[in-house]
Request: fold
Amino acid sequence: MTPVLEAKNIVRDYYLPGGLFKQAKTVHAVKGVSFKVEQGKTLAIVGESGCGKSTLARIVTMIDPATAGELMIDGKKVDIAAGDLTPEIRRKVQIVFQNPYGSLNPRKKIGDILMEPLIINTKTPAAERQELAMAMLKKVGLQEIHFNRYPHMFSGGQRQRIAIARALMLNPRLLVLDEPVSALDLSVQAQVLNLLADLQDELNLTYVFISHDLSVVRYMADDVMVMYFGEAVEYGSRDQVFSDPQHSYTKTLFAATPRADVETIRARLARKAAAAS
Ligand SMILES: Nc1ncnc2c1ncn2[C@@H]1O[C@H](COP(=O)(O)OP(=O)(O)OP(=O)(O)O)[C@@H](O)[C@H]1O
Ligand SMILES: [Mg+2]
Reply:
């Protein structure tokens, strides 16, 4: 099967201009990283702050161009720098950010936030737009009465549900989730993770899931890539990476993190296996 996402040797340099007392500098944020994700699977990207996770997320989401390397979505090469991205390919990849407070326009009602992608990208008639937005609200565990409320009237967890709903309005193939639960309370984290897991099963979505929290990664991931200073120092199935970490950075990272609830993980894996058969 053609992977939904394939990245080959992605490089991203940032050029910082010099000043009177400062030398110009190049930051090598991502140094040649390759990976692929099959449909319905989750690749988790883990690593400490500044290792290049969000940079990679922006490249995969086609927000930022890579300095070098190749990005394929559904087997089709995409080149942001060439400016030839079709709305069709942009639609396929959506992103959910960490901060549920900053990512929703405070002046817009939830219904309008959800309908906006349809207005911009499709010719869906108004009545149908409203129906689709209402249906999506329910899908993410909210209610029709929330349609006319403003973002400030919601909790962090609810806002993240809204951000997920918005990302799903155009029926994407791939969701890039950049620390989607890191700003939430632990109990709320679990609810949002369960929602993401259910949506993945139901819609056969592919996820790139960025996190610095290994217990979350263990719960969500099929494959794991560990990044360290812009490089992938570890890449393999979740079981491989967790049971036999190769790189000294990964070993330290794993040693520092408490073990996750094994039963929850087993239950999710059993559900996934059952859904696949
Ligand atoms: N627009 C930019 N201009 C210059 N340097 C940048 C820019 N964006 C990121 N960087 C640098 O690139 C490196 C990787 O940053 P990135 O945001 O991808 O890390 P991250 O892994 O997402 O970190 P965190 O866990 O803190 O979110 C860092 O050294 C950062 O300072
Ligand atoms: Mg980041």
In short: The chain has a mean pLDDT of 91. The pocket of magnesium ion (ligand 2) is lined by residues 53-54, 178 (CB under 6 Å). Strands lie at 5-16, 25-37, 42-46, 68-73, 76-78, 93-96, 174-178, 206-211, 223-228, 231-237. The CA atoms of residues 71 and 211 lie 22 Å apart.
